[in-house]
Amino acid sequence: MVRDIIKNDKHFYTKLFAIGVPIAFQNLITSSLNMIDVFMISSIGDTAVAGVGGANKLYFLLNLFLFGTSSGTGIFSAQYWGKRDVKNLKKILGICLILSVSGGALFSIIAIFFPKFVMNVFATEEPVIREGIKYLRVIGFSYCFTAISFAYIFVLRGMNFVKVPMVITIVSIGINTFLNWVLIFGNLGVEAMGVSGAATATLVARTVECCLLITSVYVLKLPIAGKFKEIFDISKAFVSKYLHTVGPVVGNEVMWSLGVATYSFVYGRMGETVMATMTLNQTIEQLFMVLFFGMSSACAVILGNEIGDNNTERAYRYSKKFIKLTIIISIFISLAVIGSSGYVVTLFNVSEMVKMNSRLCLIVFGIYIPFKSLNLILIVGVLRSGGDTKFTMMIDTGGVWLIGVPLAFLSGLVLKLDIQYVYAFVLSEEFFKLIFAMKRTYSKKWLNNLV
């Protein structure tokens, strides 16, 4: 089976490795940094981990809004690049910047001026709330820089320019890690700042990343390096066409992120130990999912390029290759997660109860990896590449709000089950989503040329 999957298509695998590997590596570095952040903060104690975890739920909401806006933009950038329409590529970037920065500004205001309100949603213990407030008041200033970076990175990905963002991400992460060491613990003669130091390090790193991205686009004279008028000369008809496709993606991510935030609300009501457990787990899980994030991004770009060039049958054939590859890889990673769960949690300086809970939740996560990874490839990669965004919005939000959220409240707050069982119920939505996503993929209804 494996030999049959990988043979006779050099074009496919050349593009997959050229696009997917740099994106996966970039995600790996980012996830490694998140893991280092949690590792360093865990030295301060469970309260600090829980506080930063609660505070970062606001960034998580922003992140998904930006992902919706930017990945929706990526649909157009991939198809426009497929037909080499650079003029409209610049306009797509302009719309994405307007939406992303507007969202970033709103979230900045909430983080800087209303941090206590945010923390009261995701935590109940006063010490946890205090730590989260300190973190939010600093990190809120980074959100607009993050928004700009998202827009440029996703448009560049759609054009197959993935190495420049990867290198810049590595540089910014190096800065973040070094400043974490200096500011959290008070090295090199600097006063120890704790969680405020972690937030300051991230703020500096994201600012540098944003500036380097914009500078690189113009210094290297990449195709989207346009004048202000070229980027923001956007007609009403163009915006309407954009929103018709991207609107459901943004709605999808917003509704899905609110559902996930509701999970966090449940975890917060289950106590500080559970909050610390899920903060630790989500960081570790990202590390194991980086390959699938890279594959889904590569899938969206490769299929989008082919659809934009009117090669719909080739796009459909490639979609089936992605499904088979994902199944094989996900089984190996699933076994790796389950097998290493006991060791990974020992790397963190948290309480024994948090370590035990985290190990059990990682085993649950490992069991669901094949379902979770396939949904990621199908929803973010395959179906969105052809602009089938309304359908993906229905199955994604339906899975969260009709299955995940009710089961989270029932198992966590009514039945008061242990966190590993609550987590298993929450992840059960992946199984139901997969049924509809697979059926839609094989129907070919997603193969739409938008440009």
UniProtKB/TrEMBL annotation:
Q: GO molecular function terms here?
A: antiporter activity; xenobiotic transmembrane transporter activity
Its lineage reads: Bacteria, Bacillati, Bacillota, Clostridia, Lachnospirales
Organism annotation: Vallitalea longa
**Record bears the keyword Transport:** yes
| InterPro entries in UniProt | MATE_fam (IPR002528), MdtK-like (IPR048279), YsiQ (IPR047135)
Q: Which Pfam families match?
A: MatE
Alphabetized UniProt keyword annotations: Cell membrane, Membrane, Transmembrane, Transmembrane helix, Transport
Transmembrane residues, as ranges?
Answer: 12-29, 58-80, 92-115, 135-155, 167-186, 242-266, 286-304, 325-350, 362-383, 395-415
Q: Where in the cell is it found?
A: Cell membrane
> Which cellular component, as a GO term, is one annotated location?
plasma membrane
Q: Which membrane topology describes this protein? A: Multi-pass membrane protein
* Name listed for the protein in its UniProt record: MATE family efflux transporter
